[in-house]
Amino acid sequence: MVRIVKQTSRHVSGWGRSGGSGGKGGGNSSKGGGSSSKRGGGGSTSSGYPSLSFLFVVVKLKVVYLQQPECDSWGNVSPPTDYDHYTHGEDPSRVMRYADGRVTPADEYYWVREGDRNGQICSETHDYPTPYKIQTVFSCNPFLPIVVADGDISVPPDDGQRPRWEFLTFVHASSTHTTKYDISLAVGKGSHGGGRRRYVAGSAHSWVPSLVPKGFVRRRAGSSPSRGLGGELPIVLALMSFYEPLGATQEERMENVFYGENARWSGGIWRGSHEPRGYSNDEDTPNGFVVYVFLDNLHNPYGSTPEALELFESGVIVRG
To answer: By the 8 A CB rule, do 2 and 114 touch?
Structure first.
């Protein structure tokens, strides 16, 4: 079965794409990719360098337990790792484009998923932007607040191995190239080795608790004021998506957070004023998203590259 959703309107060394294609499919090569268009993010900055842009889709997953829910060693219910629990539908957002510090609907693309394969976005002329990274993020309960898995948890893996949930962790980075760590990079398990921590860097974070739960701040917080939050794009975009209430429609959620007139995230600033209302309110029913990020290479081939996105991820995405 092919599921299609069309648009309706309107530096840390070794930073890798750990949440790659994960699972079956999702690997359609892009056609064309020549000059940039007016609708794309293909401009250049005042310094003459190509501007950064990328495309993304946030998919709300629907979980139906077919057996006793999985629990960790402490009795916390965790999201299923068997893809059969996710075969009862999904709620994808429209395709969106980040460019020049803001998000807009990318109306020239639509979401396509063939059976149990990774999703893809396609243009009306059947061109496919290049996938960059896929990760799944769930909210569980106050004792297991945020867990992450690389790839799309709803897709059966090629190697038959069940994916493993990881507690949300952070790599600490410095904005001044010193030992004063003041940037928190949200990461999955990937290739980040032993440098991951279960708490954020610095103090006086502008995005706690509206993006990251208070439990991720050390009681004895670092003396350096936080300069910002960065990290793997699907994780950061999913954390933003939890802000709106559980009962909101996907269209309402995306408009309020990303591309509406009063979008929560714009210009590198997060305008959240309270704890997210999209966290799971039932300890037995985790709530989550899978986020797909694609290169905007058909419209912005020089400014939307894996290297450019990796550099963006390794710096400040949300200031403060």
So the answer is: yes
